[in-house]
Every structure is written in C-alpha cells, then in structure tokens.
Amino acid sequence: KQWYQRRVRGSDDRTLRVWCRDENKATKYTCKSTVCGFHSRPIYDVSWGRHGYIATAAGDNAIRLFEQQGASLLLSHLQSDAHSGDVNCVSWKGNLLASASDDETVRIWTLET
C-alpha cells in the first residue's frame, strides 16, 4: 500500500496501531496491526518516515524505531535514555529524526541503514 493509505497511532494504553484505508470507502480505516509490550509508559507521538521506519516518542525517555513487515511491526532499534525526561515529539525529515522532550532539549538523530 502507498504510504498515504496508511496511518499509525500511539496511545495512553502503550499500544501502537497501524490503520489502512478501506479500498471501497475513502474515509474509512481498518486496524491492521497492533503492537504492545514495548513501552512502559504512554506513547505521546509517532512519525512514519517515507523510508518505512516508524519512530515512537513515549514517557519512558526512549525512542523506538519499528519497521513494517507484512501485517506485523518489528522493533528495529531502541535508543534507551534518549532524553532525561519524557519524549513528547518525534518527526522525520529524510534520514534525520528530531525528538523533543520534557528535559527542554531537541535532539537530531541520523538513521544509518
């Protein structure tokens, strides 16, 4: 599926869900994948890069990268203690990932494939 036909969401219940657009209804999305057990605190933000990696920002001070393989999401990288406070926001720009935190810092990370 094209990237614009999918959505990803994180939540307070510490799950990550991928939604795909229903082919018959342009405004309807169906949950295709749910991932849990990787976060110990709520997921505040997610960012799906065009290269296929999904970054998560959570209250456990870490950044995680997931990649989709079929209907599954696999953890591909964990940056524990990425910040000294909750990670509130992540955003991709090409192979660069920006993260912002309650520790009042913004960090830039480079994805090396």
Question: Could you characterize the architecture of this molecule?
Answer:
- This protein has 113 residues and is an all-beta fold.
- The chain has strands at 6-10, 16-21, 29-35, 43-48, 53-58, 63-69, 72-79, 87-93, 96-101, 106-110.
- A 4-stranded antiparallel sheet has the order 4-5-6-7, with no helix packed on it. A 3-stranded antiparallel sheet has the order 1-2-3, with no helix packed on it.
- Strand 9 and strand 10 form a beta hairpin.
- The mean pLDDT is 87.
Quote the distance from N terminus to C terminus: 22 Å
The mean pLDDT is 87
Percentage of β-strand residues: over 45%
- The strand count comes to 10
Describe the global form: globular
Major β-sheet strand ordering: 4-5-6-7
Percent of residues in helices comes to under 10%
Largest sheet: 4 strands, antiparallel
Number of helices: 0
